[in-house]
Design goal:
With about 725 residues, the chain is an alpha+beta fold. It has helices at about 40-45, 65-75, 95, 105-115, 150-165, 185-195, 240-250, 280-300, 315-320, 335-340, 355-365, 370, 375-385, 390-395, 430-450, 485-500, 525-530, 530-535, 540-545, 580-590, 650-685, and strands spanning about 55-60, 80-85, 90, 120, 125, 145, 170-175, 175-180, 225, 305-310, 330, 410-425, 455, 460-465, 470-475, 505-520, 520, 610-615, 620-625. About 30% of the residues lie in helices and about 15% in strands. Helix 6 packs across helix 8 (about 280-300).
Length: about 725
């Protein structure tokens, strides 16, 4: 019997009738499977979770930890391999699973089942080593597990997702899986392949709200396994006890899953092609994209993956976790959703495997999704609260959560160790502080390689006994040029001494120690390169500073000169005449030796200069020192790179250097204005001195300077920031 054409039927609102108890579940429980798709949907620029052409995939790396070790060691993919952590197994590849090995086994039992088994212990940190290694016979009493290699490989895979689908959204779900929203790139491809959809036909009865014409037939061959609309009676198997258990094991899939068919052995769907919808077309295009990306990952990185494609995140997740692994790709059409979900044990669904799932099973004496479909929303909310609408919808394959790329900046970073032997002496804790500091140093440096402006605000130490509430201590973590194990360990040891003590016994048996960073953020450009203002001065700078010591009458003795010999005459467009400029500069030099270092170069016209300004009082051109001058006046970024400011750096570095120069220019402008104001005060005395109003700088303010000590006359006051109007704010007209 032919099915109705769902593309042309008017949209029907959700059914208002509900069933209670173990009544029969009807088709109305899935009444949103065939929405009316119009030209407005296709051409809309706002793509939300209710979009009828939405396609979401979850791509999962097969036996990821084991695959990482296989690729690292360049082993045969057919070799049985397990990854060991102390006495347990944390990853089992599919060739080893064929021997019945699972993560519930220990190494001894696994070797009995497969004598040719390759066992690789996970990398560990040990005291005195800045990086983790694959040490012989690591000991849980002295070493700490490292997952850094797996994190790095995971980031490579995520980046390939982004590179392979520029217009899509990629959300990292765990260390070995990611959600991908194909909606936008699929929409663009549909308009390219079917150009007749680009414009609304002139005879369309409802204009943009007219339904799309019937879709073309689809060939599913080579795209993966298509879930049949009428599957066999055997219920599908799903992931073991929910996704939470998987995430706690580091994102690895359950080890008891069996191998699956190859992708070319896909379920046939040709008999349903006469009922194809435009959402099926979108699924087929997304499957092509997903297949291409997965092949690139296998060819370039050596990892095999499995993917599930459906209309939302929930359905894509249950597909990937349960359907024909490894190295598979599964497609769930809307028409196949009811028969796919009904026989599924609902307690295998994420968040329904705990207390809530048990309460539902006991309350209604049910075990499958189909059983719970007979419970109406009103009854469920009466028993379990209004928020149980989420359960009602998820059982019907409705999930409105977005695929949203997570921030690349983690706000916190933690290294933790569960101690096999509790720490009972205060002095024993420094060993673990240093081990944890090595992990933090490596992870923070790797993060700063991608974004050098990252820096944490605080470092925090936690200690705990068993499952008791942990005790913690934290302190600010100041910026340094480089992140080292010694630097982090010094702060960690200080926190340990304050929290636990320096000698004797600890307040309690410590079974867990954690050291971490919090408040990680991106610093501003001036903060990032503050070392450029504090770099050690060289000998030539020290000799030059001796020539301007006479300026100490109006400046702090510890203040180094800001104005160098490369200051030039103001531009000709703003000069009244060359003689007046020279006389003004000479008068200023006679009054203050500091201005004697301002070189008046009349041999050439300076023209416009972004990094200079002309003093309207003395006619001097004040210029930001260039990068060729070493020492403290060279703008050196926080990573310690040397050379000139514009010495061939990338676009981002040049932008940051420009921001630094702007801050320096604002500081020079304020400093020069302060000098003239101090001169006026010294010339006219205290009585009748006119108030000099100094305009705040137009550039961002520089950090507040410390209070001066010493100095002469009224000018010896605290220096203010550019935004505070300089030293003028400390004086008032009498």
């Amino acid at each position: 019997m032919s099915a109705p054409n769902h593309e042309t039927q008017p949209y029907k609102p959700p059914s208002k009738s509900f069933w209670k108890g173990k009544a029969k579940a009807v088709t109305d429980d899935f009444d949103d499977l065939f929405p009316r798709i119009t030209y407005r949907h296709l051409h809309s620029t706002t793509l939300g979770v209710r979009d009828p052409l939405r396609v979401v995939a979850l791509c999962d790396s097969d036996a990821f930890y084991a695959a990482c070790e296989r690729v690292r060691l360049d082993l045969d993919p057919a070799l049985p391999l397990v990854v060991q952590q102390w006495e347990a197994l944390i990853a089992v590849n599919y060739p080893a699973r064929a021997f019945g090995i699972s993560r519930m086994d220990n190494v001894r039992d696994a070797r009995k089942r497969c004598p040719a088994l390759r066992v690789v212990h996970v990398a560990t940190y040990k005291e005195g080593e800045p990086e983790p290694g694959y040490w012989p016979d690591p000991d849980t009493r002295t070493h700490k597990v490292s997952l850094d290699h797996y994190r790095r490989e995971s980031m490579k895979i995520i980046q390939m997702f982004k590179d392979g689908l520029p217009g899509g959204e990629v959300e990292k779900a765990s260390i070995d899986e990611a959600f991908i929203d194909f909606t936008r790139p699929v929409r663009e491809e549909m308009l390219r392949r079917y150009p007749y959809l680009a414009t609304v036909p002139p005879d369309a009865p409802e204009g943009l709200d007219s339904p799309l014409p019937p879709p073309p037939p689809i060939s599913w061959g080579g795209l993966g396994s298509v879930v049949p609309v009428d599957p066999p009676k055997d219920p599908p198997t799903t992931e073991s006890d929910g996704e939470v258990a998987k995430e706690e094991q580091g994102g690895e899939e359950p080890a008891d899953e069996v191998g699956a068919e190859d992708e070319d052995q896909h379920s046939s769907a040709e008999e349903d092609d006469e009922h194809v919808t435009w959402h099926d077309v979108a699924l087929s295009i997304a499957a092509e994209f997903m297949l291409r990306i997965r092949e690139d990952i296998r060819d370039k990185l050596g990892y095999t993956t499995s993917a599930g494609l459906a209309r939302n995140k929930f359905l894509a997740k249950v597909l990937t976790a349960s359907y024909k692994k490894p190295m598979s790709q599964t497609i769930l059409r809307n028409a196949a959703i009811p028969n796919y979900l009904r026989p599924m044990p609902f307690q295998k669904i994420r968040f329904l495997g705990g207390k809530l799932g048990k309460a539902l099973a006991e309350e209604y004496d049910v075990s499958t999704v189909g059983d719970l479909l007979t419970i109406d929303l009103e009854e469920m909310q009466r028993k379990f609260g209004e928020e149980s609408i989420w359960v009602y919808e998820i059982l019907r394959g409705i999930d409105r959560t977005e695929v949203k790329e997570k921030s690349v900046v983690n706000k916190s970073m933690m290294a933790s160790k569960n101690l096999a032997t509790p720490v009972t002496k205060a002095t024993d804790g420094h060993h673990w502080v240093r081990v944890l500091a090595a992990e933090l140093a490596l992870r923070l440096n790797e993060a700063r390689d991608n974004n050098p402006a990252l820096w944490p605000k605080t470092i925090v130490l936690h200690v705990r006994k068993g499952y008791d509430t942990s005790k913690s201590k934290q302190t600010p973590f100041p910026f340094t040029k480089s992140v080292t194990v010694d630097a982090i360990a010094s702060f960690g040891n200080k926190l340990w001494d304050e929290l636990v003590g320096t000698r004797g016994s600890t307040p309690f048996k410590i079974t867990n120690v954690s050291l971490g960073f919090s408040g990680i953020g991106i610093m501003e450009a001036g903060q990032r390169t503050i070392e450029g203002f504090l770099t050690a001065r060289n000998a030539s700078d020290d000799q030059q500073s001796l020539a301007v010591t006479a300026s100490d009458a109006v400046r702090s003795p510890a203040k180094r000169p800001r104005l160098s010999s490369d200051h030039e005459e103001r531009p000709a467009s703003r000069a009244k005449d060359s003689s007046s400029s020279r006389s003004a500069a000479a008068a200023a030099a006679a009054t203050n030796p500091l201005n004697a270092s301002v070189k008046q170069d009349h041999s050439r016209a300076p023209g416009s200069d972004r990094w200079a300004f002309v003093c309207d009082k003395c006619g001097a051109v004040i210029r930001v020192p260039n990068g060729e001058r070493g020492g403290s006046d060279a703008a050196v970024d926080a990573r310690g790179s040397s050379g000139t400011v514009d010495g061939g750096a990338g676009g981002e570095e040049r932008m940051l250097d420009d921001a630094i120069r702007e801050e320096m220019l604002a500081a020079l402008r304020l400093e020069h204005a302060d000098f003239h104001f101090a001169q006026e005060l010294a010339a006219v005395g205290d009585v009748g001195a006119p108030k000099r109003v100094i305009r705040p700088s137009e550039r961002p303010t520089v950090p507040t300077a410390k209070k001066r000590k010493g100095g002469q006359g009224a000018g010896a006051k605290t220096k203010a920031t550019a935004g505070d109007g300089g030293i003028a704010r400390f004086f008032s007209k009498r």
